[in-house]
Amino acid sequence: MDAAPGQVSTTDGAGPWYRSVAHEREVFRAAAGARLPVLLKGPTGCGKTRFVEAMAHELGRELVTVVCNEETSAVDLLGRHLVVGGDTVWQDGPAVRAVRTGAMLYLDELVDARADVLTVVHPLADHRRELFVDRLREVVRAAPGFQLVASCNPGYSMAGKELKPSLRHRFVTVSFDWPDAAVEAEIVAAEGGVEPKVAKRLVGFAAKVRALPELALPETVSTRLLVSAAQLIAGGLPPRLACRCAIVEPLADDSDVIGALGDAVDLAF
Ligand SMILES: Nc1ncnc2c1ncn2[C@@H]1O[C@H](COP(=O)(O)OP(=O)(O)OP(=O)(O)O)[C@@H](O)[C@H]1O
Ligand SMILES: [Mg+2]
């Protein structure tokens, strides 16, 4: 991991396009107004990251993202001493930077992080809104705009881990599901650059596959996969080939499952 993990995106320009699916915008705004942290839960490719990017832009906050994995530790969030030209200098980690500057801190896949990350997140996620940086012996209180956001995918996480109730209870939680067909077709058309009728066919295909639990896919057809297929189609690839490469193969390795998915593609196109 880098000495200073945490990707910073600025909020200039028109901002990312996010199509509301339910009440997620209102809930997020209310939570931000009440200075409560937000947990986004939902399957891969359902729009969680795009939503956070859009909300950061709409609320005028810098977005600091940390994609957590099983090696992400408290030090990665808080910061560390670096040796620069013979001197030792302190470098704030992404959580400390976000807290000091009043940014939006997005802990993507928080459940995958190491247990000591909880010691950082707990005091940040309740009324204290502060961090204790033990190596500096400093308590850093959150600047007014600071907003904590985390995401998790209940259907899939490394090593089947779950967030502890003591952590979950600190977050206002927004659950994401696949949008209604008409809304998802709008997203696929806009993001994929295809005609509405092509988007509708892709979404119809997704609905069929999502209704087939017997395929036992670890994750089902996501909006992301539909957008990728649409982008290939918009670039001139025949729809069946586009679906095969952008949807079927990323979803499965088993030849029977690939066959069943291919049949569903053939029915759609
Ligand atoms: N409501 C939406 N509005 C606009 N685009 C969307 C929406 N939902 C999904 N998308 C499209 O789906 C893509 C994938 O979404 P995103 O990266 O936000 O998923 P995610 O839930 O963060 O997935 P992961 O859990 O794998 O990180 C986006 O890049 C965008 O093209
Ligand atoms: Mg994401």
Strand content: 15-25%
Strand order of the largest sheet: 1-3-6-9-2-10
What is the makeup of the main sheet? 6 strands, mixed
Query: Which bin fits the share of residues in helices?
Result: 40-55%
- Give me the CATH architecture of the largest domain, please: 3-Layer(aba) Sandwich
Short description:
The chain has helices at residues 24-33, 48-58, 74-78, 94-101, 117-125, 165-168, 181-192, 196-210, 223-234, 239-251, 255-268, and strands at residues 7-9, 38-41, 63-67, 79-84, 87-92, 104-108, 130-133, 138-141, 147-152, 172-175. With 269 residues, the chain is an alpha/beta fold. It has two domains: 7-175, P-loop containing nucleotide triphosphate hydrolases (Rossmann fold); 181-268.
SSE order and pairing:
Elements lengths: L6 E3 L14 H10 L4 E4 L6 H11 L4 E5 L6 H5 E6 L2 E6 L1 H8 L2 E5 L8 H9 L4 E4 L4 E4 L5 E6 L12 H4 L3 E4 L5 H12 L3 H15 L12 H12 L4 H13 L3 H14 L1
Magnesium ion (MG) binds next to helix 2.
Structure write-up:
The chain is of the alpha/beta class. It has 2 domains: 169 residues, P-loop containing nucleotide triphosphate hydrolases (Rossmann fold, 3-Layer(aba) Sandwich), CATH 3.40.50.300; 88 residues. It has 11 helices and 10 strands. Strand 4 and strand 5 form a beta hairpin. The radius of gyration is 21 Å and the shape is elongated. The model has no long low-confidence stretch (mean pLDDT 93). It binds adenosine-5'-triphosphate and magnesium ion (MG).
